[in-house]
Specification:
Elements (H helix, E strand, L loop, with lengths): L1 E4 L5 H13 L3 E4 L9 E5 L7 H5 L4 E5 L19 E3 L2 E3 L6 E5 L6 H13 L4 E3 L17 H14 L3 E4 L6 H5 L4 E4 L7 H8 L5 E4 L6 H13 L5 E5 L17 H8 L4 E3 L1 H5 L5 H10 L4 E5 L17 H19 L3
Parallel strand pairs: 7-8, 7-14, 8-9, 9-10, 10-11, 11-12, 12-13, 13-14
Antiparallel strand pairs: 1-3, 1-4, 2-3, 5-6
This protein binds phosphoenolpyruvate and manganese (II) ion.
Length: 340
């Protein structure tokens, strides 16, 4: 339910209105709206049994509207103004240049991450990616260096100044990983790990939430709501390909979801062409489509020698290919999106 307050509502009436809403065990947020100067309140919880009249007759209330959306916190029906997430001086969101996050799938050694960090920075990446905990489909494969990997990421950050993003797979590691990372990455497999999402809701650092391979947009935004409901508003929505009937690709790039999410949500949108394609030669083309489609950022697996990599070598691009994509984005921003 949306409540529009009368312009200039006084403190007493405002407090009474909040009290009335909370009396029903509902939560209420002050919303960021595009038009006018009136205060709008968003009511969350089960409003089905409430009559709008109960609130519209209160002093200081101008209008009460029912809202059908299930994802009230990540959705635009309540929060119209686009969210800009800031991490280490990098702004991610509407009106800002496309952000490039790049690095290997996994951190494999100090030398490897230091060299990649420097090379991706030289090519225009502003955030360094690298998994220290790796979710592997089959046991017995390299599962990451764990805390040792975090230490190397922190060193790479110190030397290059690049903020880092790394995956957290379980609520048990939120505290430890939070001591090192600038952005928590939630992998596609964990999009509905509600225990993890609840823990990240309490964290102070941004979360990049990857869309589950079989999650529809409602369920994806529901997972984002879950994090925001815990108190963490800095969520990035990441598209990384979904499962369809067509198994000739690793996944089907869900590019249609870019305009769909832009309409439905105020959160920044990131695209991951690497895990969608599963092969290096398709990555630049998918990345260009996403850039032209207006994503706020990309996360791209990049390595100076992909054939050496212990995981996902087939989809990693070279630093110079990354540089070409950054240049493409700068051109699109100037000509199409008019970002200076
Ligand atoms: C990754 O980014 O390395 C990864 C495992 O991605 P996803 O969760 O999208 O499979
Ligand atoms: Mn990977």
């Amino acid at each position: 339910m949306l409540i529009k307050c009368e312009e200039g509502i006084n403190d007493e009436n405002y407090a009474r209105l909040i009290q009335e809403v909370e009396k029903h065990g509902l939560k209420v947020d002050k919303l960021s709206r595009l038009e006018g100067i009136s205060i709008w309140l968003g009511v969350r919880g089960d409003c089905t049994k409430l009559s709008t009249q109960e609130f519209s007759k209160l002093p200081g209330v101008e209008d009460v509207q029912r809202v059908s959306s299930k994802f009230k916190l990540s959705g635009r029906q309540y929060h119209q103004v686009s969210t800009v997430v800031e991490v280490g001086g990098v702004k991610i969101g509407e009106g800002h240049p496309t952000v490039f996050m790049a690095g290997p799938c996994a951190v494999e050694s100090e030398e490897q991450i230091m060299r990649i960090a420097k090379e991706v920075k030289d090519q225009g990446a502003v955030i360094l990616r690298g998994g220290a905990w790796k979710p592997r489909t089959y046991p017995g494969h390299f599962e990451g260096l764990k805390e040792e990997g975090l230490v190397y990421l922190a060193k790479a950050k110190r030397e290059t100044g690049l903020p880092i993003i790394t995956e957290v797979m379980s609520s048990r590691e939120v505290e430890l990983i939070g001591r090192y990372t600038d952005i928590f990455q939630v992998g596609a497999r964990n999009m509905q790990n509600y225990d993890l999402l609840d823990e990240l809701g309490k964290a102070s650092k941004p979360v990049l939430l990857k869309r589950g391979t079989d999650a529809d947009i409602d369920v994806f935004l529901g997972a984002a709501d879950r994090i925001i409901d815990g108190g963490n508003k800095n969520v990035l929505l990441c598209l990384r390909g979904i499962t369809t009937f067509d198994r000739s690709q690793r996944y089907t790039a869900d590019l249609y979801a870019i305009p769909d999410l832009k309409r439905k949500s105020h959160l920044p949108i990131i695209f991951d062409p690497s895990h969608a394609a599963g092969r290096r030669d398709y990555v630049p083309s998918l990345a260009r489509m996403a850039i032209a489609g207006g994503v706020d950022g990309l996360i791209i697996e990049t390595h100076y020698c992909p054939s050496e990599a212990l995981c996902d070598g087939a989809q990693m691009i070279l630093p110079k290919d990354l540089g070409e994509l950054v240049q493409f984005a700068r051109n699109i921003e100037k000509e199409v999106r008019r970002i200076k």
